[in-house]
Write the structure tokens for this entry.
Amino acid sequence: LGVIACQARQYAAAIDLIERAISVNPRHPAYHSNLAETLRQAGQVERALAEFRQALALDPHFTDAHLNLGLTLYHEGRHDEATDNLLLLVLGSQFMGYPFLQTNVIH
């Protein structure tokens, strides 16, 4: 429901709903990632970054959280941090055998 509220741009309701889900299951990385994306869209970038990082603390291989963290950092002008994060995503995905992230960019 929180994701649906976010898609409808009802950010306060979305944040409330997703935070309730987190209170029930705080170790679910997708909940933190969904909250982060909602916070980002609501303009609460620093909180969003913290939630993306929390999702990654729970699951270091969570591709969506890595990608969205990197893109958010990039759009905030924090290019070095973004590059480091996205590079970890690409290199990590290659070592873990995820063909959908393998590229020819890094040789």
Residues 99-107 have pLDDT under 50 and may be disordered.
